[in-house]
Amino acid sequence: MPRAIISPSVLASDFGQLTAECKRMIKGGAEWLHMDVMDGHFVPNITMGEFPQGLANPRLMSLQALPFSHSPRRYSSCSYPRAQGSFAFAKWVNDIADAGGALYCFHLEATTDPLSVIKSIRARNMKVGVAISPDTPSTAITDEVANAADMLLVMTVYPGRGGQKFLERCVPKVAELRARFPDKDIEVDGGVGPKTIDVCAHAGSNVIVAGTAIFGAPNPEEVIAGLKASVNA
Ligand code: DX5
């Protein structure tokens, strides 16, 4: 099973200090940053309809950052988006790539042609993630789609808001995907923290998105270290 990757969801951060919050998380041991950009279409609420990198109006864009350089300039704009687009993604791929994105993850539910979305992402030399919502079975991710992707995301809340209750019923999907794809990154996102990480890690997830649990903690680096230890145990 791949090693732990911790990806704090900045939805739970102080948006007024986004740059400092991003730097704080990377300094605190996070490998990636997870940013939810929502414009009220795919999900009912709005977060940052337009991401600082000038991404125009995505539906549900959850940007996860994969820092491939530690230059302060790049942190200042948090320009490492790993985007989770959920609608009309083809038009966002270039924006994300131009902003320095390393991985683009999209929701399976919002496309009838995942392979063409994957192709457009690869054309911009980004890695690919495929996300499924709580009501979507793991079998909806075919071998063909999974083999064309680098990461599979099992949402453990309904997309759209941070701070929701963890849906343990989604965890078996992690185990199902881990059994099918022992070496692939498998991510969980939503309500994950010290109380819920063990069941996720035991099922086989190695990429951990956590917002409230990390940003709400007096000592985020301790939470990050604890999540990592649980996955790597
Ligand atoms: C929901 C978002 C999640 C959310 C996680 O659509 O994708 O990333 O921010 O936040 P917590 O960890 O607070 O549930």
TrEMBL record:
Catalytic activity: D-ribulose 5-phosphate = D-xylulose 5-phosphate
BP term (GO), one: carbohydrate metabolic process
GO function term, MF aspect, one: D-ribulose-phosphate 3-epimerase activity
Keywords assigned: Carbohydrate metabolism, Cobalt, Iron, Isomerase, Manganese, Metal-binding, Zinc
Cofactor(s) of this protein: Zn(2+); Mn(2+); Fe(2+)
EC number: 5.1.3.1
PROSITE patterns from the UniProt entry: RIBUL_P_3_EPIMER_1, RIBUL_P_3_EPIMER_2
Top EC class, one word: isomerase
InterPro entries: Aldolase_TIM (IPR013785), Ribul_P_3_epim-like (IPR000056), RibuloseP-bd_barrel (IPR011060)
Pathways per UniProt: Carbohydrate degradation; pentose phosphate pathway; D-xylulose 5-phosphate from D-ribulose 5-phosphate (non-oxidative stage): step 1/1
A Pfam short name: Ribul_P_3_epim
Matching SUPFAM superfamilies: Ribulose-phoshate binding barrel
Function text: Catalyzes the reversible epimerization of D-ribulose 5-phosphate to D-xylulose 5-phosphate.
Subunit: Homodimer.
Family: Belongs to the ribulose-phosphate 3-epimerase family.
Name the UniProt record assigns to this protein: Ribulose-phosphate 3-epimerase
Organism of this sequence: Mycena sanguinolenta
